Amino acid sequence: MPENIIGALLYVAKPYAAAVENQKHSKWVHSPAQPLTGKTLGILGLGAIGQDVARIAAALGMRVIGTRRRPEPMTNVAQVLPPDRTPEVLAESDFLLLLLPATPETDNFINAERLGKMKPSAWLLNFGRGHLIKDNDLIAAVKAKKIAGAVLDVFRQEPLPADHPFWTTEGIIVLPHIGGPHPQRDKIVARLFVDNLGRFLDGKPLKEVVDCKAGY
């Protein structure tokens, strides 16, 4: 997933997609690429994936800030803030990455009010859960150019219905939930299961345990 997220950042900042379209019409259009170096990446949900994204983004010269339920200093992250300081992350981010879990507290988390705190030049990237975004509010914000656009990899209903306005809203890029799948996913999951089975039988702590009370 971290590689796919970085791929989304590069897709937005670099004019490769436009160049491919122009090539179909034999058109030479010189469009300068936008640098990621010096830009701020805000990550809501600095878990394991977010921290790995931060590592790669920092190597590209980006400044990374974000939120975590239990904030503590992290390598490659300039500021780790509690959730109640989310407005600061919204206001400072050139790219806002959603990696929040699915809980009642995060339902419709990105709504008109929070979108209004973002820069007009900022991009929203959702690789967390589809229900984090209030769909109609995002569509309205993109159409009104309150934000530059959005790259969405997860949705409330999947596959995304053919009549959903995300498909036809200029500035919204729809990905078919490609962020997490891995060519060797089944083998990785099987190894984890076997490892945890052995740990369970030996009375040892399990790996990747879900906190049912927290919801993730």
Polypeptide structure, described:
With about 220 residues, the protein is an alpha/beta fold. It folds into 2 domains: about 1-180, Rossmann fold; about 185-215, no CATH class. It contains 7 helices and 7 strands. The chain has helices at about 1-15, 15-25, 50-60, 85-90, 110-115, 135-145, 185-200; strands at about 40-45, 65, 80, 95-100, 125, 150, 170-175. The chain has a 7-stranded parallel beta sheet, sandwiched between helices. Helix 6 links the parallel strand 5 and strand 6 (about 150). Helix 1 packs across helix 3. The relative contact order is 0.11.
Number of domains: 2
| Order of strands, widest sheet | 3-2-1-4-5-6-7
The SSE string, one letter per element, is: HHEHEEHEHEHEEH
CATH superfamily annotation of the largest domain:
NAD(P)-binding Rossmann-like Domain
CATH architecture of the largest domain: 3-Layer(aba) Sandwich
Overall geometric form: globular
Overall mean pLDDT score?
Answer: 96
User: What Rg do the Cα atoms give?
Assistant: 19 Å
| Helicity range | 25-40%
How many E strands? 7
Which CATH C-level class of the largest domain is it? Alpha Beta
Structural class: alpha/beta
How many H/I helices? 7
The stretches of 5 or more residues where confidence is low (pLDDT under 50) are: none
**Distance between the ends:** 17 Å
What does the main sheet amount to?
7 strands, parallel
Kindly report the CATH topology of the largest domain. Answer: Rossmann fold
